[in-house]
């Protein structure tokens, strides 16, 4: 690493979900507070951090090969390479043999100890491993707070870990048991974020519906408090587990004006037999009933989901049931994946008997249906006036601004007057281009959500 006369620089490459993206922001915050400077590329960086995801084999391999790419930087100029995140937590000490050229392997809970880890890296020559999990009674949530933020929408961790042990999923093994953060701590962080210029918070947890803080507050109560006290315009949350989705939550989303009309509810499979084997604890009928009730109770709701194809023993008839549920619920958007066996999980002991070509075929068929439904969902928003929270200049057109609807749809619009990020504007949607809506400033009488 460079000497004290030059500012030390760091580069972070992030894989995986919003939790990892958020963890990377916290790592940046800690490093910046210690005098480090962020660098947009790894070429000159003194410290290279690969924040990894192990939810499927593909992102795991990508992270390991990314870490391997920086060998030259280590050898030629003494850069340090840290493998962080879920692959690090999963592999621990063994990774030092498997992926040579790592200076440290640190799990998600080690972020709290980053200052000490950096000190050790400066003095120690031997690689360091820190995959200690947080104390459940005293979990460490590093809040993301600065006096000013240029981010309009900021994630806020409300809970960590997961107790569900879905049979395919590695997350409980790499993120530990579930623990919820105190309502008052969350309120404090959100207040500070609002004072720094943030306009929207996204509450993060693997299963926000089972949020239960140490003082006994549940998730709908947290939403109530935030809606009442927090000076942000919008409140979002992700993700919800169907088995824990309560009437109280449905009521909260429909009643609380700052809470946006978007729920991400993982279906995973439409076959009750497969759901059982996945340990999801709901049937096809339970899911469909809850989803349709949500649609009825919350006008304009965007319902999104995750689906896995090719889980062990999934037959064509099981897959057809998934297509049936997808069609009936008419998801607005979805992420879909081919099943990938993960170490330690229950499903990894089952025979992975749907061959890769068949998984790919099912994925293609599913994605065709999902695309059709997404287009229909977007078309319904055309010619309507939608409230957009402006986030930034559009990526596709530098004369256009970009923002999101309450139901989490990106809308671009050209404008002749200055519109600043953070403003809320009315937009008449004119057209759909790909997965993006385009519109213009103004209102018409079509303001009701479809
Ligand atoms: N806690 C979230 C999911 C987090 S993981 C929830 O329950 O909704 C994100 C998604 O990755 C899962 O919803 C699932 O669809 C997918 N996934 C997880 N493990 C997988 C595996 N082994 N193979 C394929 N997809 C997987
Ligand atoms: Fe994984 Fe299931 Fe937990 Fe989601 S709820 S993180 S899919 S174990
Ligand atoms: Fe997220 Fe991947 Fe870890 S999905 S919790 S970064 S395994």
Strand order of the largest sheet: 2-1-3-4-5-6
The helical percent reads 25-40%
Total individual domains: 4
Our Rg estimate from Cα atoms comes to 23 Å
Separation, N- and C-terminal Cα atoms: 57 Å
Strand content: 15-25%
CATH class of the largest domain: Alpha Beta
How large is the count of helical segments?
A: 14
The major beta sheet can be summarized as: 6 strands, parallel
Report mean pLDDT, rounded to a whole number: 93
Structure ligands? S-adenosyl-L-homocysteine, iron/sulfur cluster, FE3-S4 cluster
Basic shape? globular
Q: Care to count the β-strands? A: 19
The chain-level structural class is alpha/beta
Low-confidence region ranges: none
CATH third-level topology of the largest domain: Transcription Regulator spoIIAA
CATH architecture of the largest domain: 2-Layer Sandwich
């Amino acid at each position: 690493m460079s000497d004290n006369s030059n500012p030390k620089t760091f580069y972070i490459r992030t894989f995986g979900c919003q939790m990892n993206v958020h963890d990377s922001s916290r790592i940046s915050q800690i490093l910046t507070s210690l005098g480090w400077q962020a660098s947009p590329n790894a070429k000159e960086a003194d410290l290279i951090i690969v924040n990894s995801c192990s939810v499927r084999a593909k992102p795991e391999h990508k992270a390991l090969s990314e870490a391997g790419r920086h060998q030259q930087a280590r050898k030629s100029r003494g850069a340090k390479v840290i493998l962080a995140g879920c692959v690090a937590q999963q592999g621990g000490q063994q990774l030092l043999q498997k992926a040579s050229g790592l200076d440290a392997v640190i799990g998600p809970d080690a972020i709290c100890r980053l200052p000490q880890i950096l000190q050790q890296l400066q003095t120690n020559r031997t690689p360091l491993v820190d995959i200690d999990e947080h104390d459940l009674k005293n979990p460490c949530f590093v809040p993301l707070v600065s006096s000013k933020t240029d981010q309009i929408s900021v994630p806020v961790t409300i809970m960590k870990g997961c107790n569900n042990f879905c049979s395919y999923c590695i997350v409980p093994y790499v993120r530990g048991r579930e623990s919820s953060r105190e309502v008052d701590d969350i309120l404090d962080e959100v207040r500070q974020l609002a004072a720094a210029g943030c306009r929207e918070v996204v509450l993060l947890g693997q299963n926000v519906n089972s949020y239960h803080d140490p003082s006994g507050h549940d998730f709908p109560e947290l939403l109530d408090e935030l809606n009442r006290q927090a000076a942000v315009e919008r409140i979002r949350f992700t993700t919800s587990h169907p088995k824990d989705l309560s009437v109280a939550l449905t009521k909260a989303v429909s009643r609380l004006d700052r809470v946006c009309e978007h729920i991400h509810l993982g279906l995973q499979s439409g076959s009750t037999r497969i759901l059982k084997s996945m340990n999801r604890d709901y049937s096809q009928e339970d899911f469909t009933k809850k989803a349709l009730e949500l649609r009825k109770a919350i006008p304009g709701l965007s319902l999104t989901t995750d689906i896995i194809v090719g889980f062990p023993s999934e037959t064509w008839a099981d897959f057809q049931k998934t297509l049936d549920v997808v069609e009936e619920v008419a998801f607005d958007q979805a992420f879909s994946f081919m099943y990938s066996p993960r170490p330690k999980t229950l499903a990894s002991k089952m025979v992975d008997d749907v061959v890769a070509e068949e998984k790919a075929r099912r994925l293609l068929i599913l994605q065709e249906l999902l695309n059709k439904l997404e287009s229909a969902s977007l078309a319904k928003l055309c010619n309507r006036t939608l409230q957009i929270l402006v986030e930034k200049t559009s990526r596709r057109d530098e004369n256009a601004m970009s923002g999101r609807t309450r139901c989490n749809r990106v809308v671009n619009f050209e404008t002749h007057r200055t519109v600043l990020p953070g403003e809320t504007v009315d937009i008449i949607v004119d057209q759909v281009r790909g997965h993006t809506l385009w519109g213009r400033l103004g209102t018409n009488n079509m303001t009701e959500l479809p």
